[in-house]
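Sequence design from tokenized structure. All designs in this work follow the same two-part layout: the structure record, then the generated sequence. An example of the structure record is given first.
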């Protein structure tokens, strides 16, 4: 029986591996009732992808439709421009729910100035509201303005990101530190915790979106933050491991 409600704000992925499609599939696995607000539609042509932002009035209308709905967690995905980021940040100020922020700020439509502008807005308006942020290494480097080459760098960047206001963070290390392991770093301002899993090559597209939405799902169900992160890493690992050639998960439940 569905008891908890959850909200996702993000972009649509036409290939259904990431974005709100991945979020909704994850929420269904956790037996959550999901609401969504669409920020963009991603299309693919001739091996190139294109991020088509929704009109700001349409997003504003979506968010106003959701103002009076109480949810147990909110997951934020792709915010493709500063106007959409501003609208989302203002909406979150009036919601009393944990916020799980996947700071997707790197895609080919952005020039260097736009990336810098979006970075500054993330730091000013979104990170201070977040319960958990889940940047990958590139996003962590951009947000902190520091390079990450090893675990020591990762920990220093975690401290910088924590100083911007999120209550907790996970830096997704992928296999940059070790080729055969996916290594993530959790930090709550007091203690570092390292999470490791073997690298799985198949069907890992959208793993970051699924990881963040799994964290959000656990938190919506009352699990504490670190256990939510640990559960989410296991969920993603098992989902990839048990997927078929189309990326559909078989014989696995959270």
């Amino acid at each position: 029986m569905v008891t908890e409600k959850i909200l996702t704000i993000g972009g649509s992925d036409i290939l259904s591996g990431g974005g709100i499609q991945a979020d909704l599939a994850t929420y269904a696995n956790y037996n959550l009732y999901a609401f969504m607000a669409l920020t963009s539609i991603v299309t693919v042509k001739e091996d190139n992808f294109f991020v088509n932002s929704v009109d700001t009035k349409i997003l504003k209308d979506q968010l106003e439709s959701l103002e009076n709905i109480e949810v147990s967690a909110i997951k934020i995905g792709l915010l493709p421009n500063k106007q959409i980021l501003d609208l989302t940040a203002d909406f979150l100020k009036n919601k009393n729910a944990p916020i799980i922020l996947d700071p997707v700020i790197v895609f080919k439509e952005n020039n260097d100035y736009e990336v810098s502008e979006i970075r500054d807005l993330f730091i000013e308006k979104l990170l201070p509201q977040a319960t958990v942020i889940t940047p990958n290494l590139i996003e962590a480097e951009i947000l902190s303005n520091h390079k990450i080459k090893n675990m020591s760098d990762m920990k220093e960047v975690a401290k910088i990101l924590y100083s911007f206001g999120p209550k907790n963070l996970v830096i997704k290390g992928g296999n940059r530190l070790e080729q055969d392991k996916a290594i993530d770093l959790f930090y709550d301002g007091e203690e570092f915790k390292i999470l490791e899993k073997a690298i799985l090559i198949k069907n890992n597209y959208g793993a970051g979106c699924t990881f963040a939405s799994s964290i959000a799902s656990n938190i919506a169900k009352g699990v504490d933050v670190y256990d939510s992160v640990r559960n989410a890493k296991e969920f993603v690992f098992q989902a990839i491991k048990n997927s078929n050639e189309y990326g559909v998960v078989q014989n696995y439940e959270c």
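Residues 172 and 184 are 5 Å apart (CA to CA). We note this feature because it recurs in several other targets discussed in the main text.
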